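Troubleshooting: if your tokenizer reports a length mismatch, compare your output against this known-good record of 394 residues.
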Amino acid sequence: MSGLQKSAMQARIAKLPYLPTVAPPYDDEQDVEEREEAMSTIASLPKMLPPGPRSVAPKRGLRSVHGPDLSQFSPISASGYFVQAVNIKLEARGIDIRAYYSPPIVPAGKTIDEPTTVMVCHHGAGYSGLSFACFAKEVVKFSGGECGVLAFDARRHGKTMPLEGQSDEDLDIDTLTRDFIALLSSLFPNPQEASTFLLVGHSMGGAVCVKACPILQESGYKVGGTAVLDVVEGSALEALPIMTSLLDSRPAGFSSVEEAIQWHITSHTIRNAFSARISIPAIFVKSEDGESDHPWVWRTPLRSTAPYWTSWFKSLSSRFLACRSARLLVLAGTDRLDKELMIGQMQGKFQMEVIPDVGHMLHEDDPSRTAEILVDFWRRNERVVIGVKKVGDL
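Known-good structure output:
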């Protein structure tokens, strides 16, 4: 490569929209005495172990169906799945958000001034931004790096923490939406120069993306599309009365992070063992009371979020159909659409895709197919020829 080519390449890279360096990109340093921080996934990627065959879910009270050897469930670092892991303090919101980011790459032959797109991913209740780790890598692959991916941990989830003297207990839809908008406003302060956003939300996160879409647009940001993963208002609200009993089947905690990963895999909560080994460590913390039976407990006990369930899903269908962007609904299996969505689908107001052989965590179970659908959606709607109507346009 000539000196002129090198200079041109360095100039292009310097202009790419990296996040503020509040925290360093992924590195190889680990504090072996801090087990939880070692599980924070900012570490070197260990050699992958084959995930082994599926087995029956362990009976309650049993520690493992494989005995003491849980090596095949050892955590895997997210290094290599995102370019950056940073912390962003939102003083006005009283939280310090952990975010994961792979910025869009401007391909050869295009100018740095051409618009770029970032998929902004909001996870579901109880999970974290790392549930999108494998998906993010696939998006970069399918888009040739042209589409960036930003995922983060919502308040009271993952590695996002309240600032000193602040509380992060409130998970009402309005609070989560304000956090979401504050994060994007902090990272992309100038709406006119910001990338176009493609909002992608799983379950609870889908409700946040749908509510945030018009607010972002009113603030001058460009939203090219809104994608909701495996949540339908009618089904979600109907399921709420039995949610508490369903949560009773979840263990209160685990003796190790490996055991927690094992439970998610053997119970088929997550069907992709590799993805579970990346995402699950972030949703557990050490027990504060030092209970010997359960030294690792849920970061966000779902039962404690019950007061907010209705706020997440009520009016979701009407808000989704009202989004002034292309719209996409991705479901795991053939879920029953509520009346409003059924009418909207017949009128061609949104695109719907069904991924077979996956569970609720469809973006973890089959990250490749999910990414393929989202990248196709992006190409069709974000880069459409001027004058051609977009899917979901009014």
